[in-house]
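About this split. The held-out portion is used to measure sequence recovery: a designer receives only the structure tokens and must propose an amino acid at every position. Recovery is the fraction of positions where the proposal matches the reference. Here is one held-out target exactly as it appears in the evaluation file.
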């Protein structure tokens, strides 16, 4: 911890957040004024600690800082307890709520679409988390579903948005299961359907799967890698919701940003007993 830590969250303090996700690991560095200083995203792979260390070092480099400059580092994500240099942990639900609340005022429903799961988080008018739902039964409605669909369409996930933008016919994928959808997609290809139309159908399937999770009213914000990198998902949500999806800055790294905010709060509340993580939350 730097000497600045005695300022208890003042402008000269520095904080880090790590989001150890099943697909990607994200790191964010912020100042005591919550200003974004640097970030990084790396593939998680099988080495959770190694991915966290690599993302952290890249974020520090982007911020022009060394580890010794930081006052506290907190972690979130499914691998949060595998990061030995983290001073504390919070759940993904907590950190995404913190990140969105920093940018969006009032009652908000958050849609977070990651590599392996999708979450719906409700915040009340005061920004308190009041409920959540998760899709954990299969990969449908997640980034890995889009990865599988891109593979079947002989393209990369990075190029899927460009391909889908060329659609000319609305095609539906009837199955929500990734395996069955892949088989259905192959049948559609044999039936002469265009890859661009099937790419759009894959996006429609993701959106439908998420919309089945809850009843959406009021303002809705989006976070996660799918929201960050697949603009057609935003357009489809807007069509179904009748309003645009609010996308805070850096949506893919917003969980790590929320962890950094938690680290900052730990210094602001120094000497107080931190609230424990709720056992039933991811």
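Reference sequence for scoring:
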């Amino acid at each position: 911890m730097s000497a600045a830590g005695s300022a208890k969250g003042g402008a000269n303090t520095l904080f880090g957040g790590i989001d150890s996700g099943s697909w990607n690991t994200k790191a964010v560095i912020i100042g005591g004024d919550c200003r974004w200083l640097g970030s990084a995203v790396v593939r998680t792979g099988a080495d959770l600690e190694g991915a966290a260390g690599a993302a952290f070092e890249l974020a520090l480099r982007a911020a022009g800082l060394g580890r010794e400059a930081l006052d506290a580092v907190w972690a979130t994500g499914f691998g949060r307890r595998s990061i030995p240099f983290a001073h504390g942990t919070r759940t993904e639900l907590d950190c995404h709520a913190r990140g969105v609340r920093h940018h969006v005022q009032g009652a908000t429903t958050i849609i977070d679409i990651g590599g392996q799961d999708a979450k719906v988080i409700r915040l009340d008018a005061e920004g308190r988390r009041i409920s959540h739902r998760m899709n954990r039964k299969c990969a449908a409605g997640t980034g890995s579903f889009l990865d599988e669909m891109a593979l079947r369409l002989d393209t990369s996930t990075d190029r899927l948005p460009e391909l889908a933008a060329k659609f000319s016919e609305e095609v539906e994928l009837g199955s929500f299961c990734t395996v069955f959808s892949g088989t259905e997609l192959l049948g559609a290809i044999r039936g002469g359907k265009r890859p661009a139309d099937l790419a759009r159908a894959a996006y429609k399937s993701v959106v439908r799967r998420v919309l089945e999770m809850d009843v959406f009213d009021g303002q809705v914000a989006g976070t996660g890698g799918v929201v960050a990198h697949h603009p057609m998902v935003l357009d489809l949500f807007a069509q179904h919701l009748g309003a645009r999806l609010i996308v805070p800055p850096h949506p893919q790294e917003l969980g790590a940003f929320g962890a950094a905010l938690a680290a900052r709060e730990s210094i602001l509340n120094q000497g107080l007993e931190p609230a424990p993580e709720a056992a039933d939350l991811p």
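Annotator remark: Strands lie at 14-20, 24-31, 36-43, 72-76, 88-89, 108-113, 118-123, 129-135, 219-223.
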